[in-house]
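re: ur question from yesterday

yeah so i grabbed the chain u mentioned. its 225 aa long if i counted rite. heres the sequnce exactly as i have it in my notes:
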Amino acid sequence: MKYVATIVRYLPLVALVVLMASCRSKKEMVTDAPTVVTPTPSTRTERGVEAIAGKLNLKLSAGNKSVKVGGSYRLKRDKVVQINLVYTVLFLPVNVGTLELTPDYVLVLDRINKRYCRVKYSDVPSLQQEGITFDTLQKAFWGESEERTKGAFQYRYSNWTDLSHGRFPQTITVMLKSGRGSYQALFDIQNIRETGDWDEPTEVPAGYSAVSMESVMSAIMSVAK
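ran it thru and got these structure tokens back, copy pasting raw so excuse formatting
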């Protein structure tokens, strides 16, 4: 279970890279002018696809440390982005945590320690300053936002696969460099199906304790130490 505990430490990092996925780099973080690449219509999911679900292999890195975990990657257009992290212990799947984005809030669920953090976008100053909304974030996870291939913050799509309408990136890489450390999340999405046959929104189980966004961000920074 030690490895599971390590994954839990990285859980807030998933939230960080997701929220940064659509943010412009802060002035104090920028070291090079970014190169922006806009996906063309031939490499972009078209509006006709309303929901998908796939198997997720996620690699999270902080400094010279990294951790790998499986899970699921689920999208319902204009409703929810849901990422579940699962680790197998003695052939039994352990649901480690959930990150969920809805039009109204961001939810981080730590299922091992029975904690959660749920905040409105307007309650996160950095998102408010950058004008980040649910629509901004869902475009990133549908493969519809602009790529950034240089600078302190980088975001890339690759390994596109065909859907009934348009294409979808099976690999999404997010990299963030700042004075506090270097972070990366590599989303490898396989077995993608066009289906909305899964539950949402996620309900916080009884007995879970609410934690603040400040404690979540503190946990993120402690990972790379």
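noticed a couple things. Residues 1-8, 20-34, 220-225 have pLDDT under 50 and may be disordered. also The radius of gyration is 17 Å.
anyway ttyl
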